[in-house]
Design goal:
Layout (H helix, E strand, L loop, with lengths): L22 E3 L2 E4 L2 E2 H8 L3 E5 H18 L9 E6 L6 H9 L3 E4 L2 H9 L7 E3 L6 H9 L7 E4 L4 H12 L3 E8 L21 E2 L4 H10 L4 E7 L9 H20 L6 E3 L18 H18 L6 E4 L3 H4 L3 E15 L2 E8 L8 H5 L6 E2 L8 E7 L8 E9 L7 E5 L20 E5 L2 E6 L4 H5 L14
Parallel strand pairs: 4-20, 5-6, 5-13, 6-7, 7-8, 8-9, 9-10, 9-11, 11-12, 12-13, 15-17
Antiparallel strand pairs: 1-2, 2-3, 4-14, 14-15, 14-19, 16-19, 17-18, 20-21
Helix pairs in contact: 2-3, 2-9, 5-6, 8-9
Bound molecules: pyridoxal-5'-phosphate.
The site of pyridoxal-5'-phosphate (PLP) has 17 residues, from helix 10.
């Protein structure tokens, strides 16, 4: 086995794996100017620790890169970035990314409410979803002076539903149509038709996308603003995005020939980040924006189109690398395996704070964070405390053989889809997210308590709730 992903690199080896402020000083990992033992002693473990300056910087970089690369000098077109809030949602995080110039993409009543309550301007908010509720549509269309910036239509029947809610509220809803371009998600291959068989979007190949766009554009209650495509997630290969972008521009041409203009085109999210030392270095945010700009301009030249406003929806690549999870080491077990032994190192969290290894076989890196060690390294599996053998945090790692209870482990790149996908399995309380900067920390999300959990138990906490 290639062992390069087993050894955990320090921030100085692979800066792309760590938040900006992560460094080791006198053998101790620190983040936001705070040594990790101090963080764990003060705020507890497990804990997600988010580097606030890193989040702000990434958000600014997305906003600036898109604005720069798509600036055409005529006040037309332009570029922007919407933060896909499902990756990590907190009101303060929304304030940071919107102050940095990003919009916000939401996909549920909860996300939409949180974004608006956080103060995101409705004009910079989008709504996605393959099964939007009437309550979601009402909130989206009713927000602010003229509703949110865009509702992304994901099925033929939605045209009627959005139009009905807009009529009821006496408003015109701004809509986009989500298209499946046939570019295979999450990979290097373009499988031209293979990816029609999934729940999102409307097929370009079968002509459904065009029918729905024509329908939407014909409704007086709707303002059709353009088309959208999201091809997948954790994609390293920029050519997948540029291929999808040019297919989308070809569709824009078809719509123009049918008399419909698309002032806006959204190319979705999905830009990869680094999870382990074995990963290649992903394209930088500027590389992404520049590649998209080149592809869009080429396609516009080829199809004789003006460059529309181009937006993207990066979630993981905005927040993923900003956060590390800190765990305290508990039980250590030596388990014989073929030709040796494996050290099972149990930590105080697990699949409830990071489901991605169990869900997708996702790989993470880990480092001994509270000290360094000259001991030989051992083959280690870092596991959680849940009642499942699949409760694995790190499948294979090399950690110093003198690892002991009380040590602190740091797992980088847990900012996206960590807290967002956390659960209360085994009635574990979900960890809080602590923002750190300049030697100080404050909660973005409080850690849950057992009484929070019992507060939902009807026998233990009787409440008068309206029956539904
Ligand atoms: C999940 C999602 C995103 C964000 O994806 P990342 O991989 O986190 O960048 C963007 N747009 C849509 C429609 C999504 O569903």
């Amino acid at each position: 086995m290639n062992s390069s992903h087993l050894t955990c690199p320090d921030p100085s080896d692979r800066p792309d794996l760590w938040p900006w402020s992560a460094r080791r000083r006198n053998g101790v990992l620190e983040i936001g100017g705070l040594p990790v033992p101090q963080i764990v002693e003060t705020w507890g473990s497990p804990i997600y620790v988010l580097d606030e300056d890193d989040l702000r910087g990434r958000a600014q970089t997305w906003a600036t890169a898109m604005a720069e690369e798509f600036w055409d000098g005529y006040g037309m077109g332009g570029g922007s970035a919407y933060y896909a809030a499902k990756a990590f949602m907190s009101a303060r995080a929304i304030q940071i990314v919107t102050e940095a110039g990003m919009g916000v993409d939401t996909a549920s009543l909860g996300e939409l409410t949180c974004a608006l309550e956080a103060g995101a301007g409705p004009n910079t908010v989008g709504l996605h979803g393959n099964n939007k509720s009437d309550a979601e549509l009402r909130m989206a269309i009713g927000a602010g002076e003229r509703g949110i910036a865009r509702i992304v239509i994901d099925s033929p029947a939605e045209v009627d539903r959005i139009a009905a809610v807009a009529r009821e509220l006496g408003r015109r809803a701004r809509v986009m149509v989500r298209v499946t371009t046939g570019v295979h998600a999450g990979g290097h291959d373009f499988i031209a038709t293979a990816h029609e068989d999934q729940k999102f979007g409307l097929s370009l190949a079968t002509g459904v996308a065009k029918k729905v766009a024509l329908d939407a554009a014909s409704r007086p209650e709707l303002e059709f603003i353009g088309v959208h495509s999201h091809i997948g997630s954790q994609i390293f290969d920029l050519s997948a995005f540029t291929e999808s972008a040019s297919r989308l521009m070809k569709f824009v041409r078809e719509l123009k020939d049918a008399g419909i203009s698309c002032p806006e085109v959204d190319l979705g999210g999905g830009y990869a980040i680094t999870y382990t030392a074995a990963d290649e270095v992903p394209p930088t945010q500027k590389d992404v924006a520049r590649s998209l700009a080149c592809a869009v301009r080429d396609a516009c030249a080829q199809f004789d189109l003006e460059v529309p406003h181009i937006s993207i929806e990066p979630g993981r690549s905005t927040v993923g690398p900003t956060t590390i999870t800190l765990y305290r080491v508990g039980t250590i077990k030596h388990v014989p395996i073929d030709g040796g032994e494996r050290l099972y190192v149990s930590v105080d969290g697990g699949m409830s704070d990071n489901i991605r290894p169990a869900l997708y076989g996702a790989r993470y890196a880990v480092t001994l964070a509270n000290r360094t060690s000259d001991a030989d390294s051992s083959l280690v599996r870092v596991v959680g405390k849940h009642c499942e053998s699949g409760d694995i945090v790190i499948m294979d790692a090399h950690l110093p053989s003198d690892i002991r209870p009380g040590d602190i482990l740091a797992v980088p790149a847990t900012g996206a889809y960590g807290h967002a996908m956390s659960s209360n399995y085994n009635m574990l309380t979900r960890p809080g997210t602590l923002a750190v900067s300049g030697g100080e920390g404050h909660w973005l999300i409080y850690p849950e308590t057992v009484s929070d959990l019992l507060g939902r138990d009807a026998a233990l906490t009787p409440k008068e709730l309206p029956s539904t």
